[in-house]
């Protein structure tokens, strides 16, 4: 019997907490709606001019501190950082510059679909290329290749469009991405 009473009290306490959580009020106390929810009489009914909401003065500096510098853009939709070598400190991130022709064609691919294109690998250093099992003559090491995918677009369709835009393509159907190069 002792355990049943304890269980009953726990159940009632939990129910009360649940009511407070759901309704935001303690039973037996009145709830005053926030100021914005109180219905004010229309100005024409009271003969007064309507009050405008007070605006806080704009500060000269944003609250979060100075703005971060704008990222270096490779094209309209891609930051250079998206093409950067993703090794764990084996290089400075740029063992080679990305080929501008490749950048233009990947941008054209993105514009064709009107959807984000995600670059999973751009330029690679020798160490990163070895880590991922890349071939010794990899175009990634020269900045002439990228691996990418487009959410919502089938690998075969993406590969065909990339070919039509003048890129050499290796589709990786099982992995869901394509390798493009110029």
TrEMBL record:
Key word Membrane present: yes
Keywords on record: Membrane, Transmembrane, Transmembrane helix
Region (Disordered): 41-71
Chain intervals with Low complexity compositional bias: 50-71
Any one Pfam family match given in the protein's UniProt record, by short name: Peptidase_M15_3
Transmembrane helix as UniProt keyword: yes
InterPro entries according to UniProt: Peptidase_M15A_C, Zn_M74/Hedgehog-like
Transmembrane segments: 7-26
Segments forming domain Peptidase M15A C-terminal: 77-180
Protein name listed in UniProt: Peptidase M15
